[in-house]
Amino acid sequence: MTAILAAEGVTRRFAPRVTLGDRIAAALGARVDRRAVQAVTDVSLAVTRGETLGLVGESGCGKSTLGRMLAGILPPSEGRVLLDGAPPMRAGHKTTTRIQTVFQDPFASLNPRQRIGEAIAEGPVSHGLVTRAAAPKLAADWLARVGLDPAYAQRFPHQFSGGQRQRVAIARALAMQPEVLVCDEPVASLDVSIQAQVLNLFLELHRALGLTCLFISHDLAVVRHVSDRVAVMYLGRIVEIGEAATVYAAPRHPYTRGLLASVPKLSLDGAAVEFQPIRGELPSPLSPPAGCAFHPRCPAATDVCRAQRPALSPRADGTLVACHHA
Amino acid sequence: MTAPLLDVRDLRTEFHTRAGVLRAVNGVSFTLARGEILGLVGESGSGKSVTGFSLLGLVDPPGRIAGGSISFEGQELVGLPPARLRELRGKRIAMIFQDPAATLNPVLTVGAQMALAVQAHGGGGDRAARDLAARSLARVGIPDAVTRLDAYPHEFSGGMRQRVAIAIALLHQPDLIVADEPTTALDVSIQAQILAEMKALARENGTALVWISHDLATVSSLADRVLVMYAGRIVESGPVAQVLRAPLHPYTRGLLDSLPAMGRPGEMLAQIPGSTPSLLSLPPGCPFAPRCPRADAACAQDPPVVGTEGRMALCHHPLT
Amino acid sequence: MTAFWKEYAENRVALVALAVVLLVVAAALAAPWIAPQDPYDLANLDLMDARRPPGFVGSSGYAHWLGTDAQGRDLFSAILYGLRISLQMGLVAGASAMAVGALLGILAAHAGGWVEGAIMRVVDLQLSFPAILLALVLVAVLGQGKAQLVIALVAAQYAYFARTAYGAATAERQKDYVEAARATPLPGWRVVLRHLLPNCLPPLIVVGTVQVANAIALEATLSFLGLGLPPTEPSLGMLISNGFQYMMSGRTWISVYPGVALIIMITAINIVGDQLRDQFNPRLRR
């Protein structure tokens, strides 16, 4: 049980780009918004070798930003990301090939003017994992492994459906022989029947290759299905993290509870389904609420929630929760 | 039983493309009672959205309604002059789109465009229009409705914008609302709020609702009846609970089993092999046959309707 | 590719324009074989045949269908050879400007920071005054000759390509496939050459087509002003210029026919370019 990938107090800010025009406008007295958006604030977590950690949250919670920092594509503003004790990027550029990423939209993540065989073999050839002569064989092997006809290597991405493209994207990532795979909403843009195929492929490959995975999704059911542990994010912070079975069966944080209650469930018995939606809306990340960021929407909020931010603290069953009242 | 609000018979909508004729909606029939919520479920390319657009006469060239009938309160909508359709569309039938930007004009305040919508259908003076707009916004759960009237669409969040679009749809208390994936782009917590409100609104006002979605779970928690579409046809229909508990069509079964919520965590999901067929080159017979575990030689013929109008499937080998 | 071609063929005007361009290129390539006379070989010229109207049968025994110029040159032959030079200059200058401009533009978009600022400010500055001005100054400084002219044309035109490439590349670099390439990670030069460049090509090809036409026109202008190619290599511009002094005396053909040839060629190339732009622009697609 050793951590292979860890975030230590990472924070990521996105400052608006101040252009020359903005400076002139500001000099003339116009109000130019220079507040930075803090997408991720002081997050620490560790991914254990061989596990799948699910990262859930709604849009704007910072899960993709955290994922990109862990994947070594985006440098943190503060804190550090460590892969076996060493940072995955240097001077703003990714240096390791041990982490690979699968992106959400397979229509956008494949170069439309590159044959898919080349897309799969390009990275391994570039890093000397295989020789140029062995590249076609590598591409064919991976295509077969993700359930596509190896003869497709000569085709372009537009000749494939969404599900097939996502298979190609998975093949491209795995052909780099990574130890860690970061999946950012890999099935969000797929139809239900295709989504099941891709999830099955993911589970199968994860087991066969002994991969460590970070699985980012807004879909709670999908995350539950693939994850060993799950982390719930709200407004740039982790509010609850623990064994998936525990978190789903007995959510501690009021936000996790509300989120789970919001998911429409298949009502097989025909009973009327009543929702208990979370009140209100996500606050602007430009001016997050003081204290616990969830307090304006929380049914259990008290004065202490408004004044003091709860720390992520361990409970008896090993789950970590950031709440004064959980 | 009283006459249905909407009676669709053998609706066919085609798109004439460079590559040939695409039969997006291929003989769809259903009825909708006043105040009923009907879920229209299917994957991309199943024809569910085109069916919705056809109901409102919003199919643009190269698409056209090639046949069938849409009867709304006994009035035939197919072939109705555009001006008459437009009148109906604002007042009696409303549409909500997946992307509220399709409804909202970015350069007008929400109040101004709502007032325009009211007055376009003879809604009285400015004052009255504004009041109606404010009430409509309040009804869909927008706090501070009166002050928010002066805000522009971009000043609302995604969920709030969708509520505004719903408020506009509700302005004239229409008899029928066609909603095309209205919560797909929204977060679950916001989706839950809107689903709860839509359900309440339909109940209170007796508004009939056609809810088009790819998400079986959403539909199951909202609709009374469900239609499952595949390759331009309705392959199964019936009361939601019955269809979900004991689906007749292998496709519906497969769709249900594909849901991660139906499987055990970490275990393989039951998957439907293959992918949806191209509507340009549909082979004769059952379009689902190439992916179907129960298919045999009989499936090369057009599948028969099994069951009754209220609970039917289009299949040679229905599950029982 | 076939679908693209089918769509192109639906526009009859563009189809005719393409045929004209191909015809002009073929005629220019085949000039030494189809021209009745080598207009550069002074031994072939007879001053007795000078300034004859179209249709005149000269001393060498064949008809001058487009007449002759002041040196007794067969105009039809001169135009064929002129096309050859004009097209050659246009293509070489256009292609070089495209290479230089595209690389600079994509580099600016990829590198960002001060590199981006420096390149794009120079480009903007240059786009803000007429290209011909810069070309005139450069030709005046560098002197006459093919190489000098190409340098002048490239310097005058690369900015259009740089602007187009920069615009396309800034749009492309936001896309996931570029991020995916960086996440692999692939080396920067590979991201630029294998991923950004191929996806920026469609708008560049459109601009390239139009800029070839512009280069031809620019070269003709410079030659007309006497600043282009030396008289030993007469391009269309120089032919027009040579005939200009006879316009008033009624011998209009000496200028008019080369002018018509120039207009037909430039118009045809522009129509082809317009159609390509329409087809590459998804917003205009039906």
From TrEMBL, chain A:
Record GO terms (molecular function): ATP binding
Protein name: ABC transporter ATP-binding protein
Places the protein is found: Cell inner membrane
PANTHER family given in the database record: D,D-DIPEPTIDE TRANSPORT ATP-BINDING PROTEIN DDPF-RELATED, TRANSPORT ATP-BINDING PROTEIN
CDD domains assigned: ABC_NikE_OppD_transporters
Alphabetical keyword list: ATP-binding, Nucleotide-binding, Transport
Location of the ABC transporter domain: 18-260
Pfam family, any one: oligo_HPY
Automatic annotation (TrEMBL), chain B:
TM spans (from-to): none
InterPro entries: AAA+_ATPase (IPR003593), ABC_Ni/Peptide_Import (IPR050388), ABC_transporter-like_ATP-bd (IPR003439), ABC_transporter-like_CS (IPR017871), Oligopep_ABC_C (IPR013563), P-loop_NTPase (IPR027417)
SMART domains assigned: AAA
Keyword annotations from UniProtKB, A to Z: ATP-binding, Cell membrane, Membrane, Nucleotide-binding, Transport
SUPFAM superfamilies: P-loop containing nucleoside triphosphate hydrolases
One Pfam family from the record: ABC_tran
Membrane topology field: Peripheral membrane protein
Stretches assigned to the ABC transporter domain: 6-256
Chief site of localization: membrane
Annotated compartments: Cell inner membrane
Signal peptide range in chain numbering: none
Annotated GO MF terms: ATP binding
Family (UniProt): Belongs to the ABC transporter superfamily.
Protein name, entry field: Methionine ABC transporter ATP-binding protein
Organism per entry: Paracraurococcus ruber
UniProtKB/TrEMBL annotation, chain C:
Predominant cellular place of this UniProt entry's protein: membrane
Domain of life of the organism encoding this protein: Bacteria
Membrane topology: Multi-pass membrane protein
Signal peptide range in chain numbering: none
Alphabetic keyword roster: Cell membrane, Membrane, Transmembrane, Transmembrane helix, Transport
Matches recorded under CDD domains: TM_PBP2
ABC transmembrane type-1 domain residues: 83-273
PROSITE patterns: ABC_TM1 (PS50928)
Segments crossing the lipid bilayer: 85-110, 122-143, 149-166, 254-273
Protein's UniProt keywords contain Cell membrane: yes
Subcellular compartments: Cell membrane
The family this protein is said to belong to: Belongs to the binding-protein-dependent transport system permease family.
Name of this chain's protein: Peptide ABC transporter permease
